[in-house]
Write a structure and sequence with these properties.
The complex is a heterodimer of chains A (112) and B (115). Chain A is an all-beta fold and 112 residues long. Chain A contains no helices and eleven strands. In chain A, the strands form two sheets. In chain A, strands 2, 4, 5, 6, 9, 10 and 11 form a seven-stranded mixed sheet that branches. A four-stranded antiparallel sheet of chain A has the order 1-3-8-7, with no helix packed on it. Chain B has 115 residues and is mostly beta strands. In chain B, a hairpin with a 2-residue loop joins strand 7 and strand 8. In chain B, 0% of the residues lie in helices and 53% in strands. The chains are: A mainly beta (112), B mainly beta (115). At the A-B interface, strand 4, strand 5 and strand 9 of A face strand 6 and strand 10 of B.
Chain lengths: 112, 115
């Protein structure tokens, strides 16, 4: 079945540590996105990539980094510069304009 | 920049009854997409319904329908014959046609379904 997988489901970060969240899709979609969700709020866009080896900052990119070396994969690194990383992180993908946005199951990041 | 506003933090509905969730948005674009997503306790985002702005006909998906008023920039969701499984957070979202995966989300409305 086609879809988006995210791992891990839960992730714990220590102070000063960088952590990487995985996102893989087998939908053959060109575009991939990372969203952050805080309690009681909607989703906010962190980074997005519309094609391999290219990505753009979203609304809240500070303290995050991404790469897009393969069409199927779009990992997100939460760096030590992100001072408030505790949140729920959702990865999404989309094909040609007009197709649906698919979301992964999410990763819950907690700070120790 | 586009903004999406959901003014109802929580709505309660009895089983088999109808509930309407409101959403307004602000944009200067003439063509765009609007979405309603459902997020149950599992936190998986599920697309409920979408509307293309150039279509005047309101979208429907089984018990879910929208009232799209382009001039008023309003996009409400009606859930008919509510079921216990409809209990979730519902988000309204806006997408541009040039990169509609870059969605602007509202803050969400929690739907509570009572037996």
């Amino acid at each position: 079945d086609g879809g988006i997988t995210q791992s891990p489901k839960y992730l714990f970060r220590k102070e000063g540590q960088n952590v990487t969240l995985s996102c893989e899709q087998n939908l053959n979609h060109d575009a991939m996105y990372w969203y952050r969700q805080d309690p009681g709020q909607g989703l906010r866009l962190i980074y997005y990539s519309q094609i391999v080896n290219d990505f753009q900052k979203g609304d809240i990119a500070e303290g995050y980094s991404v790469s897009r070396e393969k069409k199927e994969s779009f990992p997100l690194t939460v760096t030590s510069a992100q001072k408030n990383p505790t949140a729920f992180y959702l990865c999404a993908s989309s094909g040609l304009a007009g197709e649906l946005s698919y979301f992964g199951p999410g990763t819950r990041l907690l700070v120790l | 920049a586009q903004t999406v506003t959901q003014s109802q933090p929580e709505m309660s509905v009895q089983e088999a009854e109808t509930v309407t969730l409101s959403c307004t948005y602000d944009t200067s674009e003439s063509d765009y997409y609007l979405f309603w997503y459902k997020q149950p306790p599992s936190r998986q985002m599920i697309l409920v319904i979408r509307q293309e702005a150039y279509k005047q006909q309101n979208a429907t998906e089984n018990r879910f329908s929208v009232n799209f008023q382009k001039a008023a920039k309003s996009f409400s969701l009606k859930i008919s014959d509510s079921q216990l499984g409809d209990a979730a957070m519902y988000f309204c979202a806006y997408g541009s046609t040039d990169s509609w995966g870059k969605l602007q989300f509202g803050a969400g409305t929690q739907v509570v379904v009572t037996p």
